[in-house]
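Review form for a predicted model. The reviewer records the input and the model, then writes brief findings.
Reviewer: anonymous (R2)
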Amino acid sequence: MMDPRHAILFEPVAIGPKTLPNRFYQVPHASGFGSAKPLTQAAFRGIKAEGGWGGVCVEYAPVSADADEEPHVAAYLRDDRDATALRLTADAIHEHGSLAGMELYHGGNSSKNVASRHTRIAPSARTAEIHWGSAAREMSVADIARIQSDFVRGARLGRDAGFDIIYVYGAHGYLLTQFLSAWHNVRQDSYGGTLANRARFALETLELVRDAVGADCAIATRICLDGRQGVKGVRVEEMLPFIQMAEPLVDLFDVTVGSWPEDSGTSRYFPEGHQLSWTSQVRQATSKPIVGVGRYTNPDQMAALISSGEFDLIGAARPAIADPFLPRKIAEGRLADIRECTGSNVCILKEEDFRHVGCIQNPTAGEEFRRGWHPERVDPTPDPQRSVLVVGAGPAGMECALTLARRGFDAVHLVDAEDELGGRLRWTRRLPTLGDWGRITDWRRTQLDGLDNVQVITGRRLTADEVLEYGADIVILATGSHWSSEGTQPGTRKVITDAAGSLTPERVMAGERPSGQRVAVYDCDGYYVAPGIAELLAGEGYDVHLVTPESVVSPMSDGTLEGPMLRQHLHDLGIQQHTGVTLRSRTAQSVAGETSFGDTWELAVDDLVLVTHQVPDDGIHRALLADADRLRKSGIGAVHLIGDAVSPRWISEAIFEGHRLAREIDLADPTFPAPVRRDLPV
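Model under review:
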């Protein structure tokens, strides 16, 4: 039963000629599907409508040939063929009573145009940055009219494809914002100079789109309200008057702050609702409905925000990926079942780098069409009498045991050697800034506790003999991995001489500390572990030097939008960062190696922490398979290896593998994933 305090979240909201059924709004966000994977897009967005999101939007839709985004994937809306592809998504959203939104866009100076080979355009050429080896030319008045006509054509295509909300998108430094910005726009004509002139392009475009489809669709615009970007941004004192100018033309204001790394800020540096100090100011400029984001997962905070009048709609991108059924769970009073977003931004990394969105919390995200997975439902097993032993309660093991239990296996035992569940997450969540990653373990522990057919056993380290004698029909080994202390470096045969026995992340997190005050943390992993260990030790007063053969510290963090912030944060803590350095040897007083240019390099230190590579803990698996006759006599029908015990990897991929195996374990050979459905363009 829903908590009465949350009833305000389920009130309908009128936006122009349309009415949202509730206040939950999945804002436009990239997926990697666009109009190129229409069936995948439709299933991905449709599942959110099924989960209760009253408004569901697709990603940006470039309106012009010189707004080309390839190789990134966009919801192109260039012609009837694209409209036909995207109609599938609008229909999937409407099937569950939600409104569908389309985000029309032109990047101006930020457009790539590497595929189209069009010259990039900008309000002013001399303030446009060089991107992809190309400068930009200043837009003529004819260009302005052409782009505005393209917005109108895109709006009509979107309306005819069934979309209810049409965005004229300008935030994040795209063309509309470039015109508004006094830094980007130094034109001398009627589109430059005063705020009224700089706002002219956006206002004219909004008016033309409204005249074209405003009787049929709600008109929305996304704006950036922030003054912290320095001279390049649009200051708050100018954006609020612009909102007042645009109010007669707009039915919904979608507000964000700063650059994308702040707008989609990771939980490491931005708490839930961090944007409010800026976005809450919009209410003073408009009486129209406002939607804003903030990685909201707490319904009490959502209800308080709506009650305050600062927002009318709870916007979400990442929380809607982590739990498409978040609204429905609030409506049903199932708050403990909400799969809370961790703010790790793995979704962004996967979409940007791999062109297919995923999630560290929700292994079904992006798999709705090609694998037929539903986030809340799994098919029952045809043979529930089989007993299953899962050894290892890290991310992969917990997810696998949970999914097997949800499929109806009569007896699932999850056994771990430690007293606490979580595997490497037991100590990862205790690293500075990574506390919200503990939601991965906490949610699965809560779900396991609510199932009668799964038994969790901690503090018991099983041997291969004990596994053989356990009495299980199926054995799944999720025994994880450990960081090497041998001094070998991944991808090479090179060994750090005399480094064997150095500290590792597990040993540091178990309480061991460097032998002296000055310590080097050597990072060949390139993600969060080494910076986390370095920050932990620096916080305890050690003089920490972070050394890496990479060109920057933690290059993978650039894909999660936190790289520059992370490196600045480490710098501010006094942690010295040594990049492009490969270690070759260690002595009691120093470490030595060479730079990426081949120059010798040496640093005086008292101790060394190795974050080089991880070694799978697959000993039980090897022992079981080594004696096929004994394995057969034990009654074990199948043995499977998952997660880091197969190959150390991102947490998201270990969880995915545990989930996949549990769904496919009834196949003749579930070791290798079942074929997926291909999504061909309409």
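Findings: The first helix runs from residue 38 to 50.
Further findings: The chain has three domains: 4-354, 387-480+617-664, 484-614.
Recommendation: see findings above.
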